[in-house]
Design brief:
single chain; CPBP family intramembrane metalloprotease; protease; metalloprotease; hydrolase; membrane
């Protein structure tokens, strides 16, 4: 976990180059999340009743809306995450042209792989303990593998961990720790849990679209599955950075594919 930036680092006092760095990182992350967001919007949009609209209209509108949301998430994440000790060490080193990206990659690799194995074990175990009629209702499990990896593995981490978790932690840190300092562990865990639950809830509209409805059993399955994994991903993001969280999520989905 990096040291939070001082409150004295006001935007007006920063050199122009430092002001541009969050924008560069935001653009890089937006491009990284673009394929998954568009693919997911297309999958969901094709399953919604279009009425008198052409078949491509809903997927296109969904893609535009999702890309705007992704843009907001990556920008606020890039701007706020360093202030509360969060970050993306490998991608940040590429954008800032400082440090060694290879070193950052080596540091994130082990926690990412370990998190992926644990996440896959959780997904497979839950699926084995769940009636067969419910498991396919998880919107992630109903998707092709490439969309699983690009949307849930990459874009969801950008939206939920990088965007939502960073914003929530910054807001609560400013309210509850007005004197500054590193966010307390209890505060971080509270935000990890909130982001995990909200991220799980964000999968419910897709579940309804892909499965044609949402039963109480399916609601419980989706929330439990994604909330528990969200706790793991949030911890990895906090301690090891965004890259490690993305590695963990994509690996968990790849290892559990066909077994859930």
């Amino acid at each position: 976990m990096m040291d939070p930036a001082s409150d004295d680092d006001a935007p007006a006092s920063l050199p122009a180059e430092e002001l541009r760095q969050p924008l560069r990182l935001s653009l890089l992350l937006w491009l990284l999340g673009l394929p998954g967001v568009v693919g997911m919007a297309w999958q969901v949009g094709q399953r919604l009743p279009s009425g008198h609209l052409p078949g491509w209209a809903l997927p296109v509108m969904g893609s535009v809306q999702s890309l705007l949301l992704l843009a907001a998430a990556v920008f606020f994440g890039a701007w706020l995450s360093p202030r509360v000790g969060l970050g993306a060490p490998m991608l940040g080193s590429l954008v800032q042209r400082r440090g060694r990206p290879v070193t950052a990659l080596q540091q994130m690799w082990l926690p990412g792989v370990a998190g992926g194995v644990m996440g896959a074990a959780w997904m497979v175990t839950l699926a084995q303990l769940t009636p067969d009629a419910l498991a396919p209702g998880d919107p992630v499990q109903a998707l092709p593998l490439w969309i699983k990896l690009l949307y849930s593995g990459v874009a969801e981490e950008l939206l939920v961990r990088w965007g939502m978790m960073s914003v929530l932690l910054f807001a609560l840190w400013r309210m509850l720790q007005p004197r500054g300092g590193a966010p307390r562990s209890g505060l971080v865990w509270t935000v990890i849990a909130l982001a995990a639950l909200l991220g799980a809830a964000s999968n419910l509209p897709a579940a309804m679209a892909l499965m044609g409805g949402l039963s109480p059993e399916l609601l419980a399955y989706v929330l439990l599955n994604h909330t528990v994994f969200g706790l793991l991903a949030g911890y990895i993001y906090w301690r090891h950075g965004l890259g490690a969280a993305i590695v963990a999520h994509t690996l968990a989905l790849a290892l559990s594919h066909g077994l859930t």
